[in-house]
Write a structure and sequence with these properties.
By secondary structure, this protein is mainly beta. It contains no helices and five strands. Strands 2-1-3 form a three-stranded antiparallel sheet, with no helix packed on it. Strand 1 and strand 2 (10-11) form a beta hairpin. The radius of gyration is 13 Å and the shape is elongated.
Length: 57
């Protein structure tokens, strides 16, 4: 997740603009990421399936 520097809303990592205010400036939160064994996309620790390919983690 990343936070908007203008309104502090939390946004998904792949978003280019803030879903709340449209700002393009973000700060990234350091989180534990787990790569999907099927497609390699990084998912958050604790996720049960990949957000990209829906493969079980």
């Amino acid at each position: 997740m990343k936070s908007c520097m203008k309104c502090y809303a939390e946004n998904d990592e792949h978003q280019a603009i803030c879903r709340e205010c449209g700002s393009k400036e973000f700060t990234t939160k350091k989180e534990s990421l787990v790569p999907c064994p099927h497609c390699g996309e990084d998912n958050q620790s604790g996720d049960k399936e990949c957000y990209s390919c829906h493969h079980s983690l």
